[in-house]
Design brief:
Blueprint (H helix, E strand, L loop, with lengths): L4 H25 L7 H14 L11 H23 L11 E3 L5 H13 L3 H12 L4 H8 L3 H21 L2 E3 L1 H7 L1
Helix pairs in contact: 1-2, 1-3, 2-3, 5-7, 6-7
Length: 181
Amino acid sequence: MVWDRDQEAEAARIYRQYRRLLDTVARSILAQHPEDCEECVQDAIWAYVSGADKWNPERGSEQTYLCVLTRSRARDRLRRLSARREEPLADHQDYLTAGDQMEREAVRDGLRRALAELNREERRLFTLRFLYQWPSQEIGQAMGLSAGAVDARTARLRKKLKRLLARQGLGMGKEREDETL
């Protein structure tokens, strides 16, 4: 996008005037991801400058509007970061348990049965994400989806697998212990 000098000057003014406040707003949401705070602040400023006609002074101050824009962008970024959090199956191999201490073979059978209940597309996603550990972008290209869609489907797949495993008496780590109490 091409910016004219007026927009650049306006963005610089807002950055100087509100940077600390907007950074505080972003950090309150992205505390675990401080490296993303500056990007959220800049995104909010550019959104304001490019769509300044959207701000209505009767509904609130410029400062309040900028804080709302920053908060919205920080929440969106946190959602995307949470969805992309990758958890290789190897991280859980010590926690996959059976309520009555079944042998490893029985646990594997339970996992096979859970995977059999997935549809073809879910099994493919499972294989690419958890076995081959492909990044979202590559999976998206292979499956004809955007990286965001891959992340959303992966999050739903995790939840579905947890339910399917729990139905067979298998659980992941502490969650399983809580169920048996």
